[in-house]
Specification:
The chain is α/β, with parallel strands linked by helices. It contains 13 helices and 11 strands. The protein has one domain: Glycosidases (TIM Barrel), CATH 3.20.20.
Length: 387
Amino acid sequence: MAFPADFMWGTSTAGYQIEGGGDNTDWSRFETKPDTIATEPCGDACDSWNRYEEDLEIIESLGLNSFRLSLEWAKIEPQQGVFSKEAVSHYRDVLQACHARGIQTVVTLHHFTLPLWVADLGGFEHPEISNWMGNYAKHVAAKLGEEIDVACTINEPNIVALMGYLLGVFPPEVKDRSRYDKVNEAMRTCHFAMREELRNGPGTYPIGMCLSMQEYICAEGGEGTMEVIRTSMEDQYLAAVGDDDFIGVQCYTKIELGADGIMPVTGEVTEMGYAFWPQCVEYTVRRAATMTGIPVIVTENGIGTDDDEQRIRYLNGALQGLAKVMDEGCDVRGYFQWSLLDNFEWVLGYRPKFGIVEVDRTSFKRTRKPSAAWYADAAKTFPAAFK
């Protein structure tokens, strides 16, 4: 296999989960209300708003050439039509600090959170949401486009719809199939609007969407359930992104389906309650490449665990699958481990540990785990070591 010299080896983060200071969002309100189901508030997160240089020093020292981070819409546009010069300047500093270290910037514009003004006007159900997100993307392109190397419009729009509008465990806590379907449609419209504004420049960089994907394993009688789930969660999105420059695949596990629906997880289980299944990388990358016909970037893959040896075993299996699917000819442009830091994991708070770097919850001291060194070595020896 001719391995691409410019392959992106990186690690992923999200602004709300590491920065702190996100009190102008639907999530901050959700997790601090009296009857919240959230385990704990995000608070200062990992204080990366102030400590991003430390994070970038770690990435550079590991020899990784790329960093996926997200911008917080609520910080950039805290009120409708009012853009913060301070926030934009801060993000420009972060992106320039990446480039000064030879680190490519993979920038996600929306990662789960909404500014309060958007949420209060109806969020993803408002008829103007695609215009609002398009205007936000236009501002980002105008102010930061020259510093972006790869752009991701929306992170896991299918999960935002599923958790917020069907299962009701993310804001705005809705459980309605009809509204869920409409939000999925709105998500795709928002993606198109953001993509076109980003393409107008300044800056020239590949643009895509990051989709949550699973390996679905079907027992007898589960075929109908799989078709229903996969249609809304994956297929409608994969069918819509053929004009993108890439598809971002985000995968963690498998889901087994039977005649009665989703089957209980068996075998080795992660901290999230997921099946330990690194084979999902090979499966989802192959499926995304086949269905879209465009390049793939694995924008997230990892494991929540307190056992760092288990993390290494998982990443080893994931990269074995990646080597296999690339050897078959799939056009894969990068792999991003989730996550750099042990960060805020939404309704589950700080319990799940996805990071290759530990963060002390009081001092914010960063401590590299053995998996950080393992991943650095793996990136240097891939694909030979994974054949």
